[in-house]
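Morning F.,

Quick status update on the modeling queue. The single chain you submitted on Monday has been processed. Sequence for confirmation:
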Amino acid sequence: QGQLVESGGGSVQAGGSLRLSCAASGYTSGTYSMGWFRQAPGKEREGVANINRHGSTIYADSVKGRFTISRDNAKNTLSLQMNSLKPEDTAMYYCAASNKWRGFLLRPDEFPYWGQGTQVTVSS
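Structure tokens below.
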């Protein structure tokens, strides 16, 4: 059974930066696409960014120009560099994997594999 483990969350002031990482292990398939999602209290889980095995990326409009998703296929790791953070970026951030890829952000229900999440808190 595969596992996704996130790290790198924390607290930062507005305008600051954080880098999230996700380590994937035990998967022989099902990781063509990987993505970051976030969920704030009382809100639905939303897609932040997706990346496929070939490095193509898609971002939510709210994070374009501020966040960068990347992956290292050889090391089975996924990263999210978050710059110019805003209080509205505060949420639990999740790493996920899927075999699907589209020209737009995938829905959370299209990802069968999930990590446990890492908290990001941005104060004003």
